[in-house]
């Protein structure tokens, strides 16, 4: 990545960073998307079981991913400041953190998964599928976290096209494994939704091994000699990484975990509503990859400019990214509204579930519009290493406003299950406003 002087050059550089990150995120999300869709072809019990399992897993995965993403602004600022020799040490220490977090997550799942599922009071078949799906998925947690670290390293250097190609390879692998293990073709056992867990775990191992090979043998990554020598654990560096990563991870966890809590509360409305809600959330998660990818790109380009103390350039990038996100989000909103029948049909042909999914997708139109504002601003603030504001805004958006408003609407009005979505929308709108004010003040301060 290099300095861009004109606006046109900035647009070009931003798109060069953004497009492969977007494709990478779509590819990673497609793994969960395909898991859910193909499980729905078996039965709505498998759809509900896998969707609930995925909804419990996503807060953990994205939260830990946020913690590990703490190295992205650190590396981006090192890159902008010309501190190449310091970067390999940071990467290795973050890999150590990834291994430690993987062990904690696996142990925590072993202790807590059954009690959490028991609290949901699910039908026994849905309970069993969700448990076995997550148990199978746990086999791929360690390589997935290591891949996340290595992917952040590659992206921070300005080569997201490499991670795009790696993850694009993973999608057909996952689809083939789902075809074999969920549906039981070519002599493989028909495992239903549980097969999706094994398919994802194997896919995560493929991602990690390919990425390790790229960094070990492909230029320019070999020049960094990330694995050139064994280095001891440095708790001082752990503290520096976690000082940036923990607020990012906690902010993401606050955002994503609320969907897991709502999944618990949705149980009172029956399996059909659970399945429809989870299917709609699954699709919205796919759409969210656009503003999320813009935010991740902004962290890299803004961090690069801040590291070089070019604060006016950093502000130009932030405005550029936000404008692109809002413009494309409007187009997505129109598409969601016009094609809700076709989208619902991807998940089920059961009439009751089909109609419920359509209802949730109407609210998803407004949900993703708020995301289009919040996510790019979050990414920009992380480029400045201002991570506390995004954490506090997440708490405000989802737990102070979103959850209470949604619960009251669901329990006291005719909106029922849809009330939770209205709460999400209200919380996101307030959070986006707070973050925008924070960004404006920060940029005014740095440019004085």
> Would you identify the regions where 5 or more consecutive residues have pLDDT less than 50?
none
- Give average pLDDT, whole number: 82
The counted number of beta strands is 0
Number of helices: 16
Helical coverage, percent range: over 70%
Overall spatial form: globular
The tally of structural domains comes to 1
Given helix and strand content, the structural type is mainly alpha
Strand content: under 5%
* Multimeric organization: single chain
| Helix/strand order, N-terminal first | HHHHHHHHHHHHHHHH
**Major sheet:** none
Q: End-to-end distance, in Å?
A: 26 Å
Radius of gyration from the alpha-carbon trace, in angstroms:
21 Å
Describe the 3D structure.
With 448 residues, the chain is mostly helical. It has one domain. It has helices at residues 7-40, 44-68, 71-80, 87-119, 124-137, 141-156, 160-181, 193-217, 235-266, 271-287, 289-307, 311-338, 340-347, 351-383, 388-412, 418-446. The radius of gyration is 21 Å and the shape is globular. The model has no long low-confidence stretch (mean pLDDT 82).
Q: What would you say about this model in short?
A:
With 448 residues, this protein is mainly alpha-helical.
Lay out the secondary structure.
Elements: H1 7-40, H2 44-68, H3 71-80, H4 87-119, H5 124-137, H6 141-156, H7 160-181, H8 193-217, H9 235-266, H10 271-287, H11 289-307, H12 311-338, H13 340-347, H14 351-383, H15 388-412, H16 418-446
Helix pairs in contact: 1-2, 1-7, 1-8, 1-10, 1-11, 1-12, 2-5, 2-6, 2-8, 2-9, 2-10, 3-4, 3-6, 3-11, 4-5, 4-6, 4-9, 5-8, 6-7, 6-8, 7-8, 9-15, 10-14, 11-12, 11-14, 12-14, 13-14, 14-16, 15-16
């Amino acid at each position: 990545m290099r300095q861009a002087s004109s606006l046109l050059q900035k647009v070009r550089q931003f798109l060069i960073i953004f497009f492969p990150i977007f494709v990478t995120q779509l590819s990673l999300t497609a793994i969960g998307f395909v898991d859910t869709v193909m499980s729905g072809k078996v039965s709505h019990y498998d759809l509900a079981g896998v969707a609930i399992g995925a909804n419990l897993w996503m807060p953990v995965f994205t939260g830990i991913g946020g913690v590990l993403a703490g190295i992205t602004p650190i590396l981006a600022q090192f890159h902008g400041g010309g501190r190449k020799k310091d970067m390999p040490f940071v990467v290795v220490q973050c890999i150590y953190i990834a291994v430690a977090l993987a062990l904690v997550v696996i142990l925590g799942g072993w202790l807590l998964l059954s009690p959490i599922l028991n609290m949901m009071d699910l039908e026994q078949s849905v309970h069993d599928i969700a448990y076995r799906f997550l148990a199978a998925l746990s086999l791929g947690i360690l390589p997935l976290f290591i891949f996340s670290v290595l992917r952040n390293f590659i992206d921070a250097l300005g080569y997201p096209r490499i991670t795009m190609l790696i993850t694009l390879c993973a999608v057909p692998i996952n689809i083939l494994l789902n075809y074999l293990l969920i549906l039981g073709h070519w002599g493989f056992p028909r495992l239903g939704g549980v097969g999706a867990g094994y398919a994802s775990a194997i896919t995560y191992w493929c991602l990690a091994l390919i990425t390790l090979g790229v960094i070990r043998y492909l230029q320019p990554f070999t020049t960094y000699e990330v694995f050139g020598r064994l280095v001891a654990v440095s708790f001082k560096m752990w503290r520096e990484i976690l000082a940036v990563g923990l607020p990012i991870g906690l902010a993401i966890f606050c955002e994503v975990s609320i969907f897991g809590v709502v999944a618990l509360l949705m149980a009172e409305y029956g399996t059909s509503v659970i399945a429809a809600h989870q299917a709609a959330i699954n699709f919205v998660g796919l759409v969210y990859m656009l503003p999320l990818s813009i935010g991740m790109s902004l962290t890299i380009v803004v961090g690069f400019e801040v590291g070089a103390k070019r604060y006016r350039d950093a502000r130009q990038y932030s405005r550029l990214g936000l404008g692109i996100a809002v413009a494309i989000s409007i187009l997505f909103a129109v598409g969601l509204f016009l094609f809700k029948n076709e989208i619902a049909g991807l998940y089920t042909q059961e009439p009751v579930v089909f109609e419920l999914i359509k209802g949730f997708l109407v609210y998803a139109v407004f949900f993703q519009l708020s995301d289009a504002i919040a996510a790019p601003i979050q990414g920009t603030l992380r480029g400045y290493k201002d991570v506390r504001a995004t954490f506090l805004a997440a708490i405000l958006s989802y737990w102070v406003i979103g959850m209470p408003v949604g619960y009251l609407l669901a329990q006291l009005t005719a909106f029922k299950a849809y009330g939770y979505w209205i709460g999400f929308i209200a919380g996101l709108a307030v959070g986006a406003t707070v973050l925008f004010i924070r960004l404006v003040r920060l940029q005014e301060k740095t440019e004085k």
